Amino acid sequence: MSLFFLSLLNPGLPLKVPTAIIDLDNSTMSRKITRSLSAMETIEITEQATSFNEAMDKVGRGDIFGFFLIPEDFEQEAISNRTPTISYYSNLTYFIPGTLAFKGFKTIAVSTSGNIVLTTLVAEGINPQQVETLLQPIVFQDHPIHNPWTNYSIYLSNSFIPGVIALMILLVTSFSICSELKQGSSIEWLKTANGSILGALIGKLLPHTIIFSIIGIFSQSLLYSYNHFPLHCNPLIMIFAMILFVIATQTFAVFICCLIPNLRLAVSIASLIGILSFSITGFSFPVENMYGAIGIFSYIIPLRYYFLIYVDQALNGLPLFYSRWYFIVLIAIPFVVLPLLHRLKRALLHPVYIP
Amino acid sequence: MRRIIDKILKWVTSLYLVWRREFRLVFTDAGVLIFFFLLPTLYPLIYTLIYNPEIVRDIPVAVVDNCRTTASREFTRMTDATEAIKIIGYASNLNEARQWHAQKACYGILVIPEDYEKNIGRGEQSHVIFYSDMGLLIRYRELLSAMTDLSLATGTKIRQELYNTDSQPINSTSIILGDTKQGFASFVIPGILILIIQQSLILGIAMLGGGANERRMRNRGIDPLAVKATATATIIGKALCYFTIYIPLVIYILYFVPVFFNLPNIGNVVDYLLFIVPLVFSSIFFGMIFQRAVSERESSMLIVVFSSVVFLFLSGLTWPRYAMGKLWIWIGNCIPATWGVEGFIRINSNGASLEQNTHPYIMLWILTCCYFLIILFIELLIKFKPKKYHPLRR
User: Fold this and answer.
1) At residue B167, does pLDDT exceed 60?
2) pLDDT for A260
3) pTM of the predicted model as reported, rounded to 2 decimal places
4) For chain A, which terminal residue's Cβ has fewer other Cβ atoms within 10 angstroms, N or C?
5) Residues 138-177 of B with CB under 8 A from A
6) What are the DSSP calls for A105-129, one per residue?
């Protein structure tokens, strides 16, 4: 699964977004714009369109993700100070390509405008060096902390791979506990543990803990060692976080089984929560911006805390102190479930399978 | 001639019987009802509610103002006034700001250097430095575009003040197509809706198959509730039954949900409903093939739930398909939802016509035919070699 993500997202950024240019002017200046557009890293001009309608049609067909329109008499109007308008269209129904096309177009639009200012001002006799500063009086230096390539894979793999692991744990755990109920072997299972529900659970789930931790640590090694994604903390911290996360997710599944000791329902709820946690834990859309009544659910999901630890520790390399609460929650989750275990025990002693 | 008509009549009658029996099976099985009705009804609502705020606003940002002049305060005020950014306060130096960042009090740090105003006055370039947290990409995106726009706008203003030139020789306008609000729900939900249709169909059908399997196990390999009919009549009859059930659901999911939540919905209703027909049929046949591959009701769930994540990625919603490797494109081509997402998004959000989506539309029909032939082949195989494929002898 981790391999799936990493190979799918291998380039890091989907550069070369297919776009089109409509050049209605066909002048030296417009051809220059076309050339600078095709020199951009983020976009690639794959189509030439002769009219707005044609380009819109291509967007509708999905051939291009945006286009750049140079109007008629563009050069003439620009030189004679009649302020022509260039426009660019980006299709944001596909977020990443749309955004990249937008960024590329914008850069070109701004620099085109700047070049014309430069030419006119130099012609007016202003010192060219001064003009350059004039073009961009304020330079904005952007520093994406610890991901200067704005690599999309770093972000997506680090959030989706633990998500998939959590989903797997939730399903396998609830399945293995409740299928004892379905097959009627639960009494026997309790007997092997001398009637102690805690012993029975630990005996059943500990091997899973080990397997899932190995899977988790293996995927971490793929991320941080093989792919060299940012890891600005002691690797042991992330390994420790992974093990805690595995245990917390397992107990979360036990919690579901305690509430609903029925194979089908428990597995359904587990998968519902597992799938929803990709969205609700807020690594695609921040929790603070969700509706309060919805966002509050993200706090009960172990995945959120693992993700926050990752951001703090591996990505930002902060002192452990700032992540203390996330660790405490992950450690505390298993104990919260303890008082509910008697419910599960009662159900295990009286297995009823409803088809 | 008569015999042929008789045969056809018999076939149609058995088709009807299969259809009726399947209806009964669906409505008497709580598990199936959950997947056919509850899941497609509730899931779109929950999903959209999560993302419905659409845009990330007022991201907390700290300012380190080393210049402390009117100009720098003005710049700070302008930053605060952008939609994306909210200034939480002045940090005395970068270290303090970093501490705020560590405490999650801010997700970005704006540093205005000492010579900011002096440089502007002299007609030299001033630099502003912005550090942004990369934990969430959507935050970075908003911060970046807000700061870029702001520095451009301030630059233009300064230029005009200094040289009194009408320094904008060209206007440029940006037009956003499809997701005009640039919102998150508007972009992700239309695709998810298609996946929900496909996955709930597969799940429900797998559940029905599991139920039939369990009945066979209890009844020496014969399902007492199965209707005697030819393989084609059984397959088509069942498919028509699911299709009938999904007509109202599809209208609810694809028409009402986008309208409820004010997501993009500029498509022609007839166009996308026609478009979705082969998606439903290919998902049904896909589900039937899958049904033959798993025997137990619950284990089918595990597989379907997992595959949802994979299908979501293969559909190109989050990661564009043109940037994928050949292998993944090919696997994606075999999944109905890939084409469904592509076509539905374009019709629904970009207002494209069905004609413009001929390619995905035809691909969906091809998938429908292929999956139908495969399931027909499997059913015939089971019919002629009943012993070998006996569920009791596994």
Assistant:
1) no
2) 87
3) 0.89
4) C
5) 138-141, 144, 147-148, 150-152, 154-155, 158-159, 162-163, 165-177
6) HHHHHHHHHHHHHHHHHHHTT--HH
